[in-house]
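Title: Comparing notes on inverse folding

I've been comparing how different people in this forum approach sequence design from structure. To keep things fair, I'm posting one structure and asking everyone to reply with a full sequence. Here's the target:
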């Protein structure tokens, strides 16, 4: 388990990219500066972690899964 205490989302995403071998981008660079806190269990699928981010931090994500290259994830603000 990884405990986060007011870490920038951009830093957390860098770790997720390495752990899950995915590419994660932000639709808006200001999202990378969003401060988050909590606990991440590394043995959980990445979509479960991102779903928690959606609920706790008012974010949305889109995932494109490819057979021959790294999956791509985009984190964005939800449409209002």
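Reply #1:
Here's my take.
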């Amino acid at each position: 388990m990884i405990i986060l205490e007011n870490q920038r989302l951009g830093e957390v995403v860098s770790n997720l990219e390495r752990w899950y071998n995915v590419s994660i981008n932000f639709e808006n660079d200001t999202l990378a500066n969003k401060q988050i806190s909590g606990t991440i269990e590394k043995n959980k699928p990445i979509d479960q972690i991102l779903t928690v981010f959606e609920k706790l931090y008012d974010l949305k994500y889109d995932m494109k899964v490819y057979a021959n290259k790294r999956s791509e994830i985009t984190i964005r603000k939800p449409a209002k």
